[in-house]
Amino acid sequence: MSLVTLANLRFGHGTRLLLDGVSGSIHEGERIGLVGRNGCGKSTLFKLIAGVLKPDDGEVQIARTVRIGYLEQDPKLPQDKTLRGAAAEAFASIEQLKAELDGVFERMATAEPDELEKLMERQVSLEEAIDAAGGYAVDHKTDAALHGLGFADADFELPVKGLSGGQKARLGLARLLLSNPDLLLLDEPTNHLDIEGRRWLEDFLADEFKGSVVLISHDRWLLDRVVNRIIEIDRGVLREYPGNYAAFRSLRAERMLTVERQHEKQQDKIRQEQAFIDRYKAGQRAKQARGRETRLERFKQDSLVEKHAELGVMNLDLPDPPQMGDFAFVAENISKSFGDRVCFRNLSLSARPGDRIGIIGPNGAGKTTLVRTLLGDLEPDSGEIKRSPRLSIGWFRQTHDHLDKQVLAWEFLQNTIRSLEGSPRASEQEARNLAGAFLFTGEEQDKAIGDLSGGERGRLVLASLIASAKNLLVLDEPTNHLDIPSAERLEEALDKFGAIDRSRIGGKGGHGGVLLLISHDRALL
Description:
Distance between the termini: 40 Å
Strand order of the largest sheet: 5-6-7-3-8-9
Strand content: 15-25%
């Protein structure tokens, strides 16, 4: 059964067309992953299905009685309730049924025989409806969802109006999952979840939820576990692939290789035609040359196939990080607390050239506090830390408010990275090569930083850090605002960062950089 049908849907912002006559359908029981570059129209498509936006042309057809649950980025929550009370509102329909059932029991006490028979029939139908909607396990389900999404019992009585943005986002997700709609539209549901929360959500969607799901997510493990069909939005059109995200990557790579070969053939044809036009445009065959020039321009406009920027592997040389000696830091029996809250106690840890250390744990556990203590931003309460005097630290933080909004993207890279030729400042071409390796097109390289999206800004800062010849990189949730191709390109770059050349240094010591990675992204880890 088709729950939603899209018929020739068109939608754009100004002169930019996001969806160009797309058609498709969502069927009962399907689990679909919706993927595509940031800004391609994924969230817009959700809003069209949910009725938040109206299409410029075409139609969204929704089957009768289908209930759609849409996870908005800023959920609307009852400000006068507690966290648990707001979550339990998802079962408001059950509470109404229970109230009616209580009324039936009251009337039974004084009913005449004829009326009693009707009341007993109503009792049976109400009890069946309550059981079908979740029955008397409401309290258990509410608590399980809140625990799964990272809330402790002590949080249940917190007032909604006092919750943080991340807590509100998780509460909104809990309410949506508990409401048990026929179709779930989940837009980046893992953004505020730690690893355990992501695992719980995977299990819930894969094993418990019986309806249909359409999922926008940069969490590749979630997509692999939950979905059985991928829909990619690519330059205004929908492309469908069977299977999970891993299958999509393989099938898409094959399609992109075909596109690249077609692109190269077209470029050969363009070069041949242009050579003819240049040769004869001023001679006796000028009329023929002009005709071919007109046809060539029409061909470029109507038939030219674009090659995808992310097809190739990262063909980029990175500068060697400076030597740090035998170690970056050595911590012995260090502890750090804030009042009664213990972040870590009697911890010993060292980092040597080439080490890649992942730091994981629940939200608020003290991951960033640990890094700040190791690197000297905070003093430990006890213990000792030795740091290499030759440390050169690059730190990717959650916000980038310090950037000059007027500087162009390529200029920012030129000003922050080191030249491979040995000069202190990179050339324009080196800066543009680096930008291209991190999936910035020529047009995007010439944008001012203030005109870039949050994800683009993060990608730009990551590129500058990895190519700035630091010998210790600290990346704090680097993929939070990256689309999947950008996250995969970051992985390739980190693979190159500070790798030790054993043949050059005899297998010990060397120029290897140290990476400290704070992340909930399991694929990246």
